[in-house]
Amino acid sequence: MLKRWGAVCALALGLALPAASAKAQLLDAIQKRGKLIVAVDLGFPPWGSTNEKREPDGADVETAKLLAKDLGVELEVVAVTAPNRVPVLLTNKADITMSSFSITTERAKSIAFSNPYGVTSGVLVATKNVQMKSLADLSGKKIGIPRGTTQDGQLTAEAPKDAQLVRFDNDATSIAALLAGQVDAIATGGALGNKLAREYPDRGFENKFTISETYYAIGMRRGDPDLRLWLNTWIMLNLKNGKLGQIYEKWIGSPLPANLPVF
After folding, report:
1. Is 35 exposed, middle or buried (0-12, 13-18, 19+ CB in 10 A)?
2. Is 3 part of any domain?
3. pTM strictly above 0.85
4. Domain residues for 125?
5. What is the CA radius of gyration of the chain?
6. I need a labelling partner for 88 at 20 to 30 A (CA). Which of 21, 75, 202, 203 fits?
7. DSSP secondary structure of 229-249
């Protein structure tokens, strides 16, 4: 009986080990393929955008280039929007996402995160004549939000019931609505709010107040421990040597906060 039970256990272990090792092979597959496929939201400057040559650009694109270089492979950027960052991962259309991807418990139910490599604030942006100092001041106003963002989730839960939340596919269409006067304010990243103020000085745009501050990280499918370990090692080393800080300050315009948390 004991021998029989031992044989059953051995068979079960033999069946389980290939499945476990298969889940851990994405890092090897990327290196064998010679290409890292990264999902980036190219409609969210300064993290993701396109330059005058219509090429991917921005903080996350430059960070992805550094990552691919250190991994010894080419980089392929897959353009995504905020709502489909997770679906693109789960349908294997990208290996990872580097898209100002804020760490949340809701997202962590379906995907895995690396240690954070940056921090972003969520703000309300409007013209100077709009009185807005807190969430209570959103009462009766139209607020543009890119759907699927952390700001979308927060305002859905916390904004006054009579605030009209108007959802857009990305920040570009949200900003277009603000410029056209279709909404009273937009919820977006603090760096993008500052960029709006610089680009449209005659409009009087300003960041009204901060609604959130979140850490962002590399998103990946669950069950790839080798890849996650390599990414965390890479983040740690490039925080220490200052390269990630240089990219952050170049694009975001402020120093990268010290002592980012680790899992």
Report:
1. middle
2. no
3. no
4. 121-214
5. 21
6. 21
7. HHHHHHHHHHHHSSHHHHHHH
Is 181 a member of any domain?
yes
DSSP 157-225: HHS-TT-EEEEESSHHHHHHHHHTTSSSEEEEEHHHHHHHHHH-TTTTEEEEEEEEEEEE--EEETT-H
Residue appearing with tokens 């920040």: 171
- CATH number, residue 148: 3.40.190.10
CA–CA gap between residue 7 and residue 72 (Å, rounded): 43
Which sign, positive or negative, has the C-alpha torsion 18, 24, 26, 32?
A: negative
Q: Identify whether residues 50 and 95 lie together within a single domain.
A: yes
| 3 state SS of 16 | helix
Q: What is the pLDDT along the chain (263 residues), one digit of tens a residue?
A: 434 444 444 444 444 434 444 444 899 999 999 999 999 999 888 999 999 999 999 999 999 999 999 999 999 999 999 889 999 999 999 999 999 899 999 999 999 999 999 998 889 999 999 999 999 999 999 999 998 888 898 999 999 999 999 999 888 899 999 999 999 999 998 888 888 998 999 999 999 999 988 899 999 999 999 999 999 999 999 999 999 999 999 998 889 998 899 98
Handedness of CA 73, 78, 84, 87 (dihedral sign): negative
Q: Which residues sit opposite 37 in a β-bridge?
A: 76
- Measured distance CA(263)–CA(231) in Å, rounded: 13
> How many other CB atoms sit within 10 Å of the CB of residue 80?
24
